[in-house]
# Entry
Amino acid sequence: MSQDLPLKAARQRTKVLRVVGSDFGKFRENVGLENISEWEVSQSPSAKALLEAANYLRTKDIPVAFPTETVYGLGADATRTAAVKGIYSAKNRPSDNPLIIHVPDLDMLRYVLQSTTENGATNGSHDQIPEIYKPLIERFWPGPLTILMPNPTPSKLAPEVTAGLKTFGVRMPASPLARSLIKLVGVPLAAPSANASTKPSPTTAAHVLEDLDGRIELILDGGSCPVGVESTVVDGLCDPPVVLRPGGVSIDELRECPGWENVEKAYKDHGETGKAAPRAPGMKYKHYSPKAQVVLYEATCSGLEKGVDQQALELKDGNSNIVGVIRTRHWKMGGGLLCGNFKEQERLVEPLESDSQVGIELEVREADLHKPLDGATIGKLLDISIGKDSRSIAHGLFSALRELDRRSADVIFVEGTLDDEDIGAAVMNRLRKAASQIKS
Ligand code: TXA
Ligand code: MG
# Structure
């Protein structure tokens, strides 16, 4: 695979197209599963930017970044090898890590599930969606859930999408912008998170630009992503069905669906032992890592409320230390570290709209950092509170990690949350991967 194709082709700085509003389209009225059968694109003013991106995706081999409700995706036509290869090279993604595809409606999924015969005709007119997935589709789509489907042979998908596996991962995003874009392109979009490989996933267009400026030509900026962590990936083709990656749909929610009562966890977090290798190839790679060293305090660790262990601070000589603190439920401002008064706050991410469940404010507060023994100023402390419940925490997590990196933090202390609280498992999975030290 050519590693430098997008670099050569992306001659100038990446263009960011702001897309405002949310009236991109709607589902055609129906009932039950059919309720989400067909997505119609509206003629809103923002559709102009979407049309430009759609034309680009149809004709070029460089991917386009676009927002979904989980994180920004780096999209390409999933049916064309050259376009899909463009994703791997822009991200520096290992080629054995398959991509998920995104569809705007069930009609496009059914199209992919039909195999193509040699004369171009399609086989399989009946509904090929496995029964096991129907309750999940009804309840969670459009939304942050990716399901594994058998890949027909021959397949309409470029072989690079599945990286040689017999299945493909698919989801229908909840973002009207994402669904309209895919509908306008007319083919499923393969899209991993739009970060450089190993970095935290991007939840704003600015994050994408940080990682991929000059490596791609176009970013659609639709504001910050409400969920903030990636989709849950499940495999219902085995018995019992399994969760391959925790994400925006919790395991408890899955268990409420017929056929999914006994769903098992097939991923491993740091420190957990188990026999099997990770079933989602992506779960074996280093991930979600800022440049700074991350020290994670598990929610269950004794003495958690007291905050950061002062003795654990490894400091440089002089006053150039930059220490970040990301707080959730218990830690007070500054995470218990000795510091001066906090200066004026700086807004980091716009609070989400008031109708959202996760209306959090995310601000960076700065103070002088003092040495525990003699009180001398030894640098600065940057404090971010990302909220108390797992939905807010998920929404702010990657933004907070990236912001502290941008401000050159040497170390980031993070207060963890509980795995069994809603989407807490997804938050903790990402944090355990990002951490170089875990206090449990
Ligand atoms: O929320 C999301 O899922 C975002 C947005 C952009 O939709 N996308 C995303 O894609 O996170 P990516 O490529 O970063 O993660 C997809 C995960 C990887 O861990 C990959 O290994 C796994 O899904 N995966 C994809 N296809 C698979 C397959 N056929 N079998 C097993 N695992 C698969
Ligand atoms: Mg990713």
In short: The two ends are 42 Å apart (CA to CA). The first helix runs from residue 5 to 9. Residues 1-11, 352-360 have pLDDT under 50 and may be disordered. The longest strand covers residues 362-370.
